[in-house]
Amino acid sequence: MKKIMCALRFIFRNGETWTVKRENIGDLWIKQVTTSFGRINEGEFEEIHPCESFRIEILNEADHVNSNDINKGGLEAGMFARVKQFKDIEKMDILYRDTKNGEKRMNFEKDTIYFPYAALDTDGHDNAHQTSVVLDETLYIVVDPEKTVSEIYPETQTSLS
User: Fold this and answer.
1) β-sheet bridge partners, residue 17
2) How far is it, in rounded angstroms, from Cα 117 to Cα 43?
3) Alpha-carbon distances of 91 from 10, 53, 76, 107, 135, rounded to whole Å
4) SS3 of 160, please?
5) Which of 35, 64, 97, 139 has the lowest CB atom count within 10 Å?
6) What is the mean pLDDT of the segment spanning 2-26?
7) How far apart are CA 1 and CA 45, in angstroms?
8) pTM beyond 0.90, yes or no
9) Strand-by-strand arrangement of the 53-58 sheet
10) Domain count, the chain
11) Whole domain around residue 9: which residue ranges?
12) CB within 8 Å of 12: residues ≥ 6 apart
């Protein structure tokens, strides 16, 4: 049995989600994923997978809300606009499907990756490390303590607002 990534589910600080299918992802890089064990906000003890840096290019076909997602804000303006307006992606689930004897089956197995986070202001919702831009109907997101979206994707410099 082989695990194959079939989608990424972004989880925002307010609990909303956005699922992006594999075929709608261009460039993707998750740097230095480690494994820790701990408790977040007095929850259960669990294995935690923080990463050092994250970058992704999401194609226009993903600029919608999947009916399985709970996001309501993206219904009106689209998910690209929501990501640009709010810098609040907290973590991401990597969703897998299994292949067994050449047959594809959905599996509920996932890995949750936590992004670097530093509060941008006193309310703590926006992440100082998250930058994004839309260029030619493609969304570019970078979550990195040292680099911005324009440094990782230089072609986006003229589109920054």
Assistant:
1) 11
2) 19
3) 6, 12, 23, 20, 24
4) coil
5) 35
6) 93
7) 29
8) no
9) 25-31, 53-58, 138-143, 130-135
10) 1
11) 2-159
12) 18, 71, 86, 88, 89, 90
